[in-house]
Please model this.
Amino acid sequence: MSEKKFDIYFEFNHSGLNLAAFSKTSGKLEYYKEQTYKSYFNNYKELNFDKLDKLLEVNILEIEKSTEEFFRDIYLIVDTPQSTSIKLSVTKNNEGHKINKEDAMYLVQDAKQQLLKSNQDLGITHIIVENYVLDNVQYKFFPSKKKCTNFSIDVIFICFPKDLFKSFEKLFLTQQIYITQFVCSNYIKTFGFINKGQKMCECAKDIVQGSNKQEVVSIPKELKKKGFFEKLFHFFK
Model:
């Protein structure tokens, strides 16, 4: 199988569907289209997924024709009032030792497990470490190898309802396309990542590629995976 030449982004917002294709080699925006679809909302101003199949099929064919490449995975940006932001703080007794990356990872994992246990209807789109706190002193970025007695982190979780995840996954699977990553539009706006003249799809690409150095990339179930600590946070790269 030949290597992909493009990364594909779809954006569903309150008024339309936007599509973008970025060159994997140069990162440049090679294709972009905006399409309104107000008729696809139901009486509750929510997307009517049953009607979106044909719209999606037409636009997929168009972007594949333009890029001369079939694609089977996308990045999906969703603008929805159903997104929610939840902040948790978790602490450990560090007994005066130096903190390391593993300490931070386990605290993030602990916070994630607490959130999902209490909010079983939610799925997580973004995890942001807002602060590291060592003996009541705050740091925005990981203060490697500092000693402390009490070590805590403040973590922000950006979440969607699981039903929304499933609806989008089902929609794209009808076209045999998988969603590589969900990106929350409100997260991009709230954290001020939109530059003047920049499209939302371009901002989302920057987020996916690590523009927020405080965002956690992923949290595997087994923390001992090889290379895990080197790739978990963008700022550890």
